[in-house]
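Worked Example 4.2. Read the sequence first, then its structure tokens.
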Amino acid sequence: MFYYDDNDLIFTTSWKSLSVNSKFDESLKSLWREKEDEGLFRYKYKEENVIMLPGKYGFLAVLNVDRGTKRRKPNIFASVLEPFNDDLFNFTKVNAGEYLFKFSYGSSISSNTDDALAINTSPLGDFHSLILPKINSKLPQVIDEYSLIIAIQLLLLSESPAIRVGFNSLCAFASVNHLHLHLYYLQYKMYLEYCDIEQFSGPCHKIIDYPSKGFVFVLKSSDLLSNFVKTVYIMINYLQQKNIPHNIFITRALVKDLNVNDFNNSRNCVRVFIWARISSGDKRMDKFSPATCELFGHLVFKDKSEFSEVTESSVAKILTDVTESSFLLIENDIKNLYLTI
């Protein structure tokens, strides 16, 4: 069991401190490597080829052929709010060795947690793991305030600016209808960590001048996490009730204020990106699939020919095609949701 409290949350870090590990980082990484040595993964994660695509957005293209050929075949879903189905694969059915540890906010005396972290047996990045909130409650892949809070807490338990958390709803490339978020380390500075954003309505911002059209919320160290999550969840709940597929990506980021001496490396806040998008439909195992990582700019390719031909403009068109129509459709509703906050 991994216990933590507010004193363990780290708000300020730097790309100059990549070698520094928190207690959480050490626990996760050492156990993950043990699982790798035990042969519990479908393949050993390796970056076969990595290219920072020339252009403004610094897209990171990664070739990972194994993820296209060796991962579990995903299920296909018809609705964002599809109920949990115990007949399908879920994370209570995995090999017990795939669990890294359970974790709990607060003291060992008062807590009775069912929150777990497990390896992703088909990793797309370093130390790719699954956050499994209330795993034995068998919740469907519909994010709630509780799971969003623990996801942000786990990110803040890390000393690393490279830690990321992502969520794919059903019909937005989620492959399992059992509540889970993705956690991994991406050891590259990414455009959306520091790019300009535009205040849109209340605490809601818009991503500007970026192909994935969406919204962003900023958590600062002075903010109360529970209040922040309630605010973010207003939009998520709207998307769920309207049956609109969506992707969420959480990353450390930069607020440019007078206390920051090193804009290039300092990371002093958290950005939560939310993209409404067109339905993902059938999930081709070997083809480029614009899910949450891809909308963020981390492009996972499983096909060598697709990878060899990729350009910033070709990817930008795909990301815009996936997000723009949904963004324009809900933009006014989202503005109204946050006008009084």
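Now turn to a second chain, presented in exactly the same format:
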Amino acid sequence: MELRYTMSKRRKSGHGWFSSFVVCFIALTELISNVRSLKDLKIFVPEAVIMGNAATLSCQFELEKASLYSVRWYFESEEFYRYVPKESPPARTFPVSGITVDGTQSDATSVTLRGVTRDLTGQFQCEVSEDAPLFHTDIRHARMQVVELPKEDPQMQLDKTHITTLDSFRSVCTVGTSFPAANITWYINSKRIHRTPYQRITYRSYEGTPTFSSLEMLPHSQVLQDIYQSMPPFHTSLTVMCEISILHIYTKSVQQRILVSDLVTTISPNLLGLDGSNNRRKNNGDPDNSPLTGAARGPVVPALLMLLLPSLWTYATPLLDRCRLPMGRVSGV
């Protein structure tokens, strides 16, 4: 009986100890969850900033019931700024090559860098720690690109300024040295040009040298065919444009025009008598009842001359100038 009583007592004691442990564990977990209040840590770093400008980096967070212990900023694992509220002064900077902190514009949630250089292209990191008892720490990081803009405006050259629909042409676009290298995109009459066997695009860029791109358009290009089909007759033009961009902070463009003419496609076969209408008129009169065929044969030659006159005048003018006689001799005749 005594042995049974002793074992029963031990069991009750063991159950009591386990229950107390569970209660304490739950209470401690609840306490930790209440104390650990650092959350919603977010970092804001400019994706791109122009070389020589200032850049403000921001670290936003919520502490609720906890107190802030420190905020630390790193560039590529090197600490350059620390903010500890309990210290005096709370802000402290550390020497890192290329970094100049503007102390008047920096605090617990942000740090401002003056006169950024290309060397500051890289990874920035914000580390926030809450105060005792847990000193919970959270980290966020983001990349920043420092952009060196080209000092010269883009330039474009065309190998031809006047073509027909059967001609090819080539254009070259260059832009000054930049970091990173500029992107060059081609357009013709607002249609973007992509590389194909009939739309040949080259691109060349080396660090420390201008960026270069060329465009060669062959007459069988689908873009040109679509444009030509929608063109009005006689003379019209193509607008060739190259657009230069560097990330989202720099965009410029340059464009030139090419005159396009194709007389072959604007002369009706009826005007040239190539459709066999003469034979039909002899037997059946004027089958299409057109004033340019049949009995109205008289206006054919004048109409054809009016079509050809602009081009004939263009090529004949230099010859006339060379053959022009002095006014005195004309008077004598």
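Notes for the reader: The first strand starts at residue 39 and ends at 44. Residues 263-301, 323-333 have pLDDT under 50 and may be disordered.
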